[in-house]
Amino acid sequence: MVEPRMKTLGEKVECSHSLFPMRKAFKGTFIVAGGYDRDEGSKAVDENRTDLVAYGRHFLANPDLPKRFEINAKLNKYNRDTFYLDDPVVGYTDYPFLEDVA
């Protein structure tokens, strides 16, 4: 389920609706997406609002996202202009791993 969330100019996440009624009704593994960061995703799982959280934009820019979340490392900023290019070098493959920025 995609949470009806958005990033505003101040990068503050706003959510006017909740998926909790869907969570209660659905008996399978519940996965949410929609602008979650590390802390918000962990909180959603801890509070049993979801089983799993999907990370799109953050994963594109951080090929080692699970490791970064594990050690609470700084994330690479994503470049939205490169998300759907057919260039094999720019975008998906040119974001640095942690060891490349250390």
UniProtKB/TrEMBL annotation:
<comment type="similarity">
    <text>Belongs to the NADH:flavin oxidoreductase/NADH oxidase family.</text>
</comment>
<feature type="domain" description="NADH:flavin oxidoreductase/NADH oxidase N-terminal">
    <location>
        <begin position="16"/>
        <end position="74"/>
    </location>
</feature>
<keyword id="KW-0288">FMN</keyword>
<keyword id="KW-0560">Oxidoreductase</keyword>
<dbReference type="Pfam" id="PF00724">
    <property type="entry name" value="Oxidored_FMN"/>
</dbReference>
<dbReference type="InterPro" id="IPR013785">
    <property type="entry name" value="Aldolase_TIM"/>
</dbReference>
<protein>
    <submittedName>
        <fullName>12-oxophytodienoate reductase 1</fullName>
        <ecNumber>1.3.1.42</ecNumber>
    </submittedName>
</protein>
<dbReference type="InterPro" id="IPR001155">
    <property type="entry name" value="OxRdtase_FMN_N"/>
</dbReference>
<dbReference type="GO" id="GO:0016629">
    <property type="term" value="F:12-oxophytodienoate reductase activity"/>
</dbReference>
<keyword id="KW-0285">Flavoprotein</keyword>
<keyword id="KW-0521">NADP</keyword>
<dbReference type="InterPro" id="IPR045247">
    <property type="entry name" value="Oye-like"/>
</dbReference>
